[in-house]
Amino acid sequence: MPKIGMRDLRRAQLIDATLQTIDQSGLSGTTLATVAQRANISTGIVSHYFGGKDGLLEATMRHVLRDLWEATMRRRLAAKPEPRARLRAIVAANFDVSQVNTPVMKTWLAFWAESMHQPTLRRLQRVNTRRLYSNLCAEFEKALPRAASRRAATGLAAMIDGLWLRGATTGEPFDTKAALRLANDYIDLLLDARAKARTRKSA
């Protein structure tokens, strides 16, 4: 009988091997055999746990998305209970080291491309998009009218994705400080404009 916890350990080992294989060989060079070789186990075991390459990529992306969710929750809980700080925490989570290291960035890029063809991956992408939008809306709505908060959330989500994509495709180490500075400036611009408008109305 397998040892207690062996399944989770084995899956984690194979997901890590998948990330490393995509980093080194790209998605086209990532097969059950290449992942098994990197993990130093049989191809049959990889097939047993994930079924095939699609299942392997799905499991890997669920792992990456879980890391993103955990980073978001951790940073939001640690932030001051006010919109600006919480919004900055959400931004920081999207540029967390778990999301901007080279293997994960290459896997994200592969995932986005494959999600246009694989329904299961497309659903994962939609869940992630809705989660980010919902989190941003929840914080913007504490400072802006409802319609304005939705526009702000859409704009900030697009900026996060754009900054991440640009950084991921440079071939250089990700400049987290620059990305945070630009995204946080956008938050400040929106919230400060609202604060000034309120001041004018009350004057």
Topology:
Blueprint: H1 6-25, H2 32-39, H3 43-50, H4 53-78, H5 83-94, H6 97-100, H7 102-115, H8 119-140, H9 146-168, H10 176-202
Helix pairs in contact: 1-2, 1-4, 1-7, 2-3, 3-4, 4-5, 4-7, 4-8, 5-8, 5-10, 7-8, 8-9, 9-10
Structure notes:
The chain has 203 residues and is mainly alpha-helical. It has two domains: 1-51, Homeodomain-like (Arc Repressor Mutant, subunit A); 54-202, Tetracycline Repressor, domain 2. The chain is built from ten helices and no strands. Residues 31-50 bind DNA. Keywords: DNA-binding, Repressor, Transcription, Transcription regulation. GO terms for molecular function: DNA-binding transcription factor activity; transcription cis-regulatory region binding.
Which terms summarize this structure?
repressor, Tscrpt_rep_BetI, Arc Repressor Mutant, subunit A, HTH_TetR, mainly alpha, DNA-binding transcription factor activity, Tetracycline Repressor, domain 2, 203 residues, elongated
Low-confidence stretches: none
CATH fold name of the largest domain, please? Answer: Tetracycline Repressor, domain 2
Number of strands: 0
Rg, please? 20 Å
Form type: elongated
Highest CATH level, the class of the largest domain? Mainly Alpha
CATH superfamily of the largest domain: Tetracycline Repressor, domain 2
Helix content: over 70%
Give the ordered list of helices and strands.
Answer: HHHHHHHHHH
Question: In short, what is this structure?
Answer:
The chain is mostly helical. The protein has helices spanning 6-25, 32-39, 43-50, 53-78, 83-94, 97-100, 102-115, 119-140, 146-168, 176-202. Helix 5 (83-94) runs antiparallel to helix 10 and helix 9 runs antiparallel to helix 10.
